[in-house]
Amino acid sequence: MTPAWALRREELLSDCLVSPDVFNPMLERLGEFVVPYQEALETEAGQRNVHRYLQGLLSHLPAKNAEDIATLVDVERQVMQEFIGTALWDHRPLIQVLVGQVADRLGEPEGIIAFDPSSFPKRGSHSVGVKRQWCGHRGKVDTCQVGVFMGYVSDQEHALLDFRLSLPEEWARDEQRRQECHVPKEVQYHTRHEQCLEPV
């Protein structure tokens, strides 16, 4: 990278920084917006931690990790770590809330549902579904994960509605890898196409 481009990149990145103060006027609205999603969570602990997590994400913390957020909201680190990374919960009720809101607030007769695959470059072999395959992000065959995204699109608005990871055949048939990455037993491979990571 040339020194001139490095300097320009730093200038562009500095323009992208947004102060958490920008969110202060909308905190009350955001709190109301979150309530249906909070109610859709199955556990009481999960419902309590939604606001704590959002408080951390919208704060002045330089790093938005579980440990720093837990310190900010005065709970044990494990509480936030479990909520963010290890607690088992069903995302489908949250998707139902989201789809309902998009339909009510953004829906138009000319709106469409669009499906689009996208890839995520990865190193190693342990992320679910990772393998050498076509990586659109890099424009070549490379090690990556592939996801399928569903969105609502109209002339006026657009919104992401749902997404799934693709599970290649070698992953679906490898019991050890499935167990290590917690791929549900009900996710099966279909010979006609690669199964997305969703129960059949």
How far apart are the termini? Answer: 48 Å
Principal-axis shape = globular
List low-confidence stretches.
none
The secondary structure category is alpha+beta
Provide the domain count.
2
**Chain-averaged pLDDT:** 86
Looking at this protein, list some descriptive labels:
single chain, alpha+beta, five-stranded antiparallel beta sheet, 5 strands, 42% helix, 20% strand
Describe the structure.
Helix 3 packs across helix 4 and helix 3 packs across helix 5. The chain folds into two domains: 84 residues, no CATH class; 83 residues, no CATH class. Strands 1, 2, 3, 4 and 5 form a five-stranded antiparallel sheet that branches. With 200 residues, the chain is of the alpha+beta class. The mean pLDDT is 86. 42% of the residues lie in helices and 20% in strands. It is globular and about 50 Å long. A hairpin with a 4-residue loop joins strand 2 and strand 3.
Give the gist of this structure.
The chain has 200 residues and is of the alpha+beta class. It has eight helices and five strands, in the order ααααααββββααβ.
Strand and helix map with partners:
Blueprint: H1 3-16, H2 27-40, H3 44-57, H4 66-73, H5 77-86, H6 92-106, E1 112-121, E2 131-135, E3 140-153, E4 158-167, H7 169-172, H8 175-180, E5 195-196
Antiparallel strand pairs: 1-3, 2-3, 3-4, 4-5
Helix pairs in contact: 2-3, 3-4, 3-5, 4-5
